Amino acid sequence: MQNNRQNQRHDRRGLTLVEIMIVLIIVVAIGGTAVVAYMGQRERALERTARANINTLETAIRMFVMDIGRPPTTDEGLEALVSPPSTIPNPDNWIQGGYLEGRRGLIDPWGNPYQYESPVRSIPEAQGRPYAIWSVGADGQSIIGSWMAGQ
User: Fold this and answer.
1) Which of helix, strand or coil describes residue 37?
2) Distances (CA, A) of 130 to 23, 48, 97, 151
3) Model pLDDT for residues 55-91, shown as the tens digit of each residue
4) φ, ψ (nearest 5 deg) of residue 95
5) CATH number for the domain running over 2-145
6) What pTM does this model have?
7) Given its phi and psi angles, is residue 140 left (phi above 0), alpha (psi -120 to 50 degrees) or beta?
8) Which residues fall within 8 angstroms of residue 89, CB to CB, at 6 or more apart?
9) Deepest in the core among 14, 30, 35, 47, taking most CB within 10 A?
10) Strand pairing partners for 134?
């Protein structure tokens, strides 16, 4: 009887390699799922931020148009919202302090400058618009633009 109890205690001392492997597989599967879900959410959040920034830039351009009479040209770019370009016909109308608070608003969530064109020539989807603002997204190809629905 004594010998039997010792054998039972000996069998329960630790986990087997198979049990450890099963636990590790479960932990890795849960962790992997969480990482994939987080990355998808993060990318969607960055896209929403880019859309909101583009809306802010459009508002600044509308104010620029009310003061100057036209949107910034492609050569003047979005920089015209931060510092007065030398090419505007009525520089006294340019709002003191600019139409944006600093240059940070000119950079998309991925660290690239927003693209701007006026008049629009290179984007077929935006033809006929006085200007277009866009970001090329994280991959450099997924365009998020001012002419898109839901902006």
Assistant:
1) helix
2) 60, 24, 24, 16
3) 999 999 999 999 999 999 999 999 999 999 999 888 8
4) -65, 130
5) 3.30.700.10
6) 0.72
7) left
8) 68, 69
9) 47
10) 115, 145
